[in-house]
Amino acid sequence: MSVDIPDMSELLKLTPTARYGDDAPDRAAAAGANAVADATGARGGALHLSAILPAVSAAIGHPINTAVHRDPKALQRALGLPDATSAIVVLVDGLGYWNLAMRLGHAPYLRSLMNEPANQRPIATCAPSTTVAAMATFGTGTCPGLTGMAGYTQLNPVTGKLSQLIQFTDAIPPSDLQRQPTVFERLALRGVQVTSCGLPKFKDSPLTEAALRGPAYVGGVTPRDRLLAACDAAKTPGLTYLYIRDADKTGHSYGWDSDKWIGVFERIDAQLAALRHNAPHGTLIVVTADHGMITADPDQRIDIAAEPQLSRGVRVVGGEPRALMLYAEEGEPAEDIAHRWRERLGGLALVRTRDEAIAQGLFGPVDDRVRPMLGDVLVAAAESVTIVDSRTQSDKATHLPSVHGSQSMMESDIPCLIDVA
Ligand SMILES: [Zn+2]
Q1: End-to-end CA distance of the chain
Q2: Secondary element (H or E) of residue 413
Q3: At the top level of its lineage, which domain of life is listed (predicted)?
Q4: How far, in Å, from the CA of 63 to the mean position of ligand 1?
Q5: How far is CA 217 from CA 189, 208, 233, 267, in A?
Q6: Average pLDDT for residues 113-135, to the nearest whole number?
Q7: How far is the CA of 246 from the centre of ligand 1 (A)?
Q8: pTM here?
Q9: How far is the CA of 99 from the centre of ligand 1 (A)?
Q10: What's the 240 CA to ligand 1 centre distance in angstroms?
C-alpha cells in the first residue's frame, strides 16, 4: 500500500491546532493508518513531536513522563514502537512528511519504511513549525508554552528587544529561558546511557544547551563519522540521538523543490540506510523531523513596511515569515491590531490574539513567565503567503525560496518512521 498524496492546494490548507496529551487523535483511532492524511483531521496527542522521546524512553524500559505527557507507555503503543534495549532517534531538519512522500522515488531506504502501513501516518510538530520551538518541544517532551522557545525570534521581556534563538543573540541565557528538564537529562540521571551525535560546532551551542542538554556529545566531522558514532553508541543499552541538518539548509537556500535539495535528500537516504546497516542487531530506529517546508510564492509576499494598515500599532515583529508574533505598542489593544490584519489578509492568514491562541492550545499549557514572550497577536500564513518586514529583515531573509512556521499540512505534518535493525 502506498501513501495517497493530496493535491498541493489541500496540502497548503491550515490544519486544526494540534492538541497536547496522551490520547491518539480521534480520527486516527477510529479509522487506522492514513486517517489523518487530510487537512481537516484532528492532530496531536500521542501523534506529536513531543511524544517521541517519552515514547522511546518507555520502549527502552525507562519511561519518562513530562509536564504534558503523563503516560509514556500509552505513547509507545499509539506510535507503534516495539520494545528494545537500545534506540537511535534521528531528527532530519526540515524533512516534512509530505516533502518526504512526494520525493520517495529518490529514497529507496525511506521508501521501504514508508511502505509499512504503520509508518503511513503523519504526526504533528508544534506551533510554530520551526526549529527552535520544535527542538525544545522534542527535547523536553513538552510544548513551547512551557519551554519559552516560541519562535525564530521572540521578545526578550528583560530587555524589551527581539532575541534570536538559533544563536541566542540578545536572549535570556539558554538554561534560564528553557527550564523544563530534557528527556535526555532525566534518563542520564537514572544512569541510562544517552549519547548525541552531531557536528562538533553544535556541542556547546546555546540551542543544544537549551533544548537538548544532558547526553554525552560525540562530534563527528562527516555525516558518516556521525552515523558510525551513533551505531557505536547503540552497542550499549540506552538512547542515541542523531541530528541531520542539510535538508532544511538547502531548502532555505535553493528551495525544497530544487535539484540541489533532491541531491541532499538522496544522500540523507543513503546515510540512513548505512545507519540501519551498521546499527547493532535489534536496535530500534526512529526517523523524525522538526517541521516540513513549503515553496514561497513571490507574488504572495506581503511587506509590512509597505502596508500602514499592518504596521499601525505594532512595535516589534517577531517570529518568521510564515508565523508572525506581533508585539503591540504601549496602549494599543491587541484586538485592534488583529482586526486590521484580518481585514487586510482575509483568508491569506489565520490571525489570533495571544489570549485566543492560548485558549485554543496553540502553545500547549503556558507558564506565566512565558506569556509576555509570545506576541500580542499571532499570525499563521495560509496558501503560499509570506509576510515580511523589509525595515528590519535582510533581503535574503525576506526572499527565501522555501519556508516554514505555519500550520499547513506541508509544514506541520512530520514523519515518525520506525525500523528495527
Ligand atoms: Zn528552517
Answers
A1: 22
A2: strand 413-414
A3: Bacteria
A4: 31
A5: 16, 10, 11, 23
A6: 96
A7: 10
A8: 0.97
A9: 13
A10: 23
Distance from residue 252's CA to the centre of ligand 1 (Å) = 7
Distance 31 CA to ligand 1 centre (A): 32
Residue 385 C-alpha cell reads as: 503567503
For residue range 314-329, list pLDDT tens digits in order: 999 999 999 999 999 9
Residue carrying the nine cell digits 491587541? 334
Taking the centre of ligand 1 as the mean of its atom positions, its distance from the CA of residue 140, in whole angstroms, is: 20
**44 alpha carbon – ligand 1 mean position (Å):** 21
Q: State the sign of the Cα–Cα–Cα–Cα dihedral 246, 210, 14, 335.
A: negative
Cα–Cα distances (Å) from 20 to 17, 311, 324, 370, in that order, read 10, 33, 22, 17
Residue 122 C-alpha cell reads as 503523519
Give the distance (Å) from ligand 1 centre to CA of residue 221: 22
In angstroms, the CA 213 to CA 308 distance is: 43
Dist. CA 342–CA 261, nearest whole Å? 35
Residue 298, preceding bond cis, omega within 30 degrees? no
